[in-house]
Design goal:
It is a single chain. By secondary structure, the chain is an alpha+beta fold. The chain folds into two domains: about 140 residues; about 120 residues. The protein contains ten helices and ten strands. Helix 6 packs across helix 10 and helix 9 runs antiparallel to helix 10. The longest helix has 29 residues.
C-alpha cells in the first residue's frame, strides 16, 4: 500500500519553517492560484536581530503577527510535545501512518545523522525539521521533505532510519521538543486579497517599523539591509562565519515583491508603471549576483568581493526604497 498527500513547490524555501508550510499550499500556478491573493498581502515585512552580523544562530526572516498566524487563516495547526508520540499506542510508525491516513501532514524534528538522504548521514549530528507527507508499506519508507543538501528536497526515509532519527534527536534547540499536525480546515474559507493590509505592511516595511509586535532587540523592514551589510563587514574582518541565509532571504523577498506587483497589475487592476516592475526585477537579479559573489568569496577568500557586495547592497537598499515609495504612492490613488 502506498499513499501520498499533495505537495507543491514552495515560493519561499530559505528557511524550513516556511518551506514546510508552503509545500502544502498550491501556489505553483501564479495569479490563477486560489491562494495567490492570500500570498500577495503577506510575506512583505522582514526582521532580524541587532546582532545578526556576528551571531550565526540569528536569522533574517519574514515576519508576521505570530509564527503561524497567517497560515491559521485556513489550516488546522496542532502543536504538541513529542512525548505524545512516544506514548502513542503502536509507537512512532503507527502514529505517522494514522495521521497521514487522516489527511494530516506531520512536521517532525529528526536527527539527520541517522538519515541516508542527508549530507550529514553518519557524519554530524544535526536536528532538522521535516515534513512527512506519505508512505509506502511494501518498500517500508516515508516520503519527507527537508534540506538533504543546501536545497529543500523530497526524499525517501526508511521506517528503520525514521525511528533512529526520531529517537536520536539531540535537543539543542527548544523547538526540537515539539511536533505539528497540519491540515486544511474545512470550517475556514481562503481569505481574499486585503489591499489595506498590503499597503500597511508596505508602509511599515519602508518605515522600518512593526507596530503589531515591536521588539527593541530587532530591526525591521528596509533597515535590515544595514544589518546584512554589517554582516559582510564582520566577515571581512574574520569576526563571523560564512552564511548564505541572509542574502537568500533578501533574494526571495525581492522575488516575492515582483510576484506581488504582477498580481496587483493583472488581478487587482492596479496600473503598475513599467519602470516600477523593471526596478523590482533588477533588484531580484542583483540579489542573485550578490549570492553568487558570496559563493565565490567562500572559495577564493578574496575580501575585495565582500566590499563589492557591501557597495551593491547599499545601492539596492536605496533603489528599493525609492521604487517601493513610488508603488506605495500609486496605491494611494484610485484604482483604474
Amino acid at each position: 500500500m502506498e499513499m501520498q498527500l499533495d505537495v507543491f513547490t514552495p515560493p519561499i524555501a530559505s528557511y524550513i519553517h516556511h518551506a514546510n508550510m508552503l509545500s502544502i499550499i498550491d501556489l505553483e500556478c501564479g495569479n490563477s492560484s486560489t491562494f495567490e491573493p492570500w500570498f500577495s498581502h503577506n510575506f512583505i515585512q522582514l526582521q532580524c536581530p541587532l546582532d545578526l552580523s556576528t551571531n550565526r544562530e540569528s536569522q533574517l526572516d519574514f515576519c508576521h503577527e505570530t509564527f503561524t498566524s497567517i497560515y491559521e487563516d485556513f489550516l488546522d495547526i496542532q502543536r504538541f510535545h513529542r512525548t505524545f508520540i512516544e506514548r502513542y499506542e503502536g509507537g512512532l510508525l503507527t502514529f505517522l501512518k494514522d495521521q497521514l491516513n487522516e489527511g494530516y501532514y506531520v512536521e517532525l524534528v529528526a536527527n539527520e545523522y541517522e538519515m541516508e538522504p542527508s549530507i550529514y548521514y553518519q557524519k554530524t549530528h544535526m536536528d532538522t525539521n521535516m515534513l512527512i507527507f506519505g508512505y509506502n508499506l511494501e518498500k517500508a519508507y516515508f516520503l519527507a521533505r527537508f534540506y538533504t543538501t543546501d536545497t529543500y528536497n523530497t526524499c525517501e526515509v526508511s521506517f528503520e532510519q525514521m525511528l533512529q532519527a526520531f529517537y536520536g534527536v539531540q535537543h539543542h534547540y527548544y523547538w526540537s521538543k515539539y511536533a505539528r499536525l497540519l491540515k486544511y480546515d474545512v470550517n475556514y474559507s481562503i481569505p481574499e486579497f486585503n489591499m489595506e493590509r498590503f499597503t500597511i505592511c508596505l508602509s511599515n516595511y519602508l518605515a522600518s517599523t512593526n507596530p503589531l509586535h515591536h521588539d527593541a532587540a530587532m530591526v525591521y523592514g528596509i533597515r535590515t539591509y544595514g544589518k546584512v551589510m554589517e554582516y559582510y563587514s564582520a566577515l571581512s574582518r574574520n569576526q563571523t562565519a560564512i552564511d548564505y541565509r541572509p542574502v537568500s532571504v533578501l533574494y526571495e523577498h525581492k522575488k516575492c515583491l515582483v510576484r506581488k506587483a504582477r498580481f496587483l497589475h493583472a488581478t487587482m487592476n492596479v496600473e503598475i508603471e513599467p519602470h516600477i516592475l523593471d526596478s523590482l526585477q533588477e533588484l531580484e537579479k542583483a540579489m542573485v549576483a550578490i549570492r553568487n559573489l558570496t559563493i565565490k568569496y567562500s572559495i577564493s577568500k578574496d575580501t575585495r568581493l565582500l566590499q563589492k557586495i557591501i557597495d551593491s547592497l547599499a545601492e539596492c537598499r536605496d533603489k528599493e526604497a525609492a521604487t517601493l515609495e513610488k508603488l506605495s504612492n500609486r496605491l494611494s490613488l484610485p484604482l483604474t
